[in-house]
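Risk register update: the risk of archive-format incompatibility is retired. Evidence:
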Amino acid sequence: MFELKEMDGLARIGKFYTKHGVVETPALLPVINPNYMLISPNEMKEKFKAEMLITNSYIIYKKNELREKALKNGVHSLLGFDGPVMTDSGSFQMYVYGDVEIENREIVDFQKKIGSDVSTILDIISPPDRKYEDAKKDVEETIKRAKEVEADALTVQGSVYPDLREYCATELSKLDCILHPVGSVVPLMEKYRFSELVDVIVSSKKGLIPSRPVHLFGCGHPMIFPVAVLLGCDLFDSSSYAKYARHNRMMFPDGTKNVDEMKYPACPCPGCSNFDEIKEMNENEKTRKIAEHNLYVSFSEIKKIKQAVHEGGLWEMVEERCRAHPFLLSALKKIGEHKEFLERFEPVSRKSFFYTGKASLSRPIVYRFRKRIFERYEKPEADILVVLPESERPYSKTYHDVIKKISEKVNAHFVVNSVFGPVPVEFDEMYPVGQSVVPMDVECEKDLVKEYVKTFDYPNVLFWENEKTFEKLESFKKKSSFNADVQKIKSVAFYQFGKCPDLFKGKIKLVKSKNGKIRNVFVDGEHILSVRNDGFFTLKMGGAKKLHSILEYPKMRVAVNDDAVAFIMEGKNVFSKFVVECDPEIRPKDEVLIVDKNDILIGVGRATMNREEMLSFKKGIAVKVR
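Archived output:
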């Protein structure tokens, strides 16, 4: 079973439950070759804090001595490791050497007999240079083999063809298992074809159900970890720590270096504390020392990724890491092409939005922001649109005097031509705008302003030119005719909930803080909304009742079965196993209406998942009830 603890889009920190313990993901599984243990499994646990290992069941099966020990005492005793152990099936050996003398049923049965926590099918590896028709046959054979056994891990194949990957993933998701590896990616990584790797992972994720962890087979280099986690991979296995060490190669998050060519190693790991001594060691000692370094660096990168997920800053980390290599930059660009899919899992807000370059504008949150502005925004009844240049946040404070002076003379509305596109000043406290850190000299897209003007059909548009703008406004005499505060709460609510003008039908009262910020919204004396730290609204029960009557089912709803109703009405959280239906437009951190199967409103809260995740997971919180 897999349980989500924290999420950042597709990236997630989770608990993977096995017979020999719980593994926190993202996790790195060192590969152990029982014929040659460069670093013992016990050291992996004690020194490097490895929670789970992976070994090859075919290697064990092929050697009589190992096979007999494993059958008698189990694979954990054979390796000397009491934590979870995953076993590979020999698919790679079959692909490379073509000498695997065992059938799918037999190797899966053998993995079960030796007590593997995660057994794997003997799938058909489909490398990147495979022709489409041959890759399709590989996929069909892999699916056939998956259906004939009860393996724990069913591997997604399909070469570099997105449609085959998604089809394979969809078919495998229908079968009973606990884990989905994504296979045949090593050749892509070895040749730095990272852009294609992105397509392979994303197309696989599109077909896989969210409640099962995803293992990126053969991904053992730390420079790939951040991108892979961002795209939803949970587990990695590494034999690279040993393979690279045997060639005197040290792994780092930004690439690989030969130990003999390094003079000033900027590495804080314990293995490098006496770096000069490494060069003087004999071959075996040197190999082991480099392998230790590679493990320290790899496990450290996993921890950094977890911290980034915890802080909601994985996008920034990925953009930073991808500048380490030109082909990683290509991968970053490719990720931007999948923003529509990624948006489905993108939380409503994070603590901050750090602009690291033009690639930051391809993040799914920017895609969502621009899309909702054009689809959900309703302009005020203004005669003039004044376009202000990018500035420090919040815009309403930076341009306070300008806005006040113009509004006292003419009926004008204001947008800022920001890196996010045209931003109506009403949104200047809302994520991502209000929480963004952006250089002032970034060039903004002018075409989006033209599209904005055309979409909302403003009769007069003026671009701010200091005093010149005031001169141009002299010909307009009509003063502002709309309430800016009411315009603000309506704009944010429409962006957040969809167009719902009846939510504010009645006498509106706004409660503000000492510095003039809106904090609470009352309609006809009833408290319906409060402002969150991210600029969005917290939905009060009064507001929930109004929206429930305004919006048609299943809009904003999370519907639960009868067993959960009483607990939710007591204020208990909604667990995913009780969810029976959900609005497809709900995103993590959205305010939601909780209803029973008959659409009777029973509570209100904040979603932690989207619809796909709520209906898939059988463990974990789907909505935090207020």
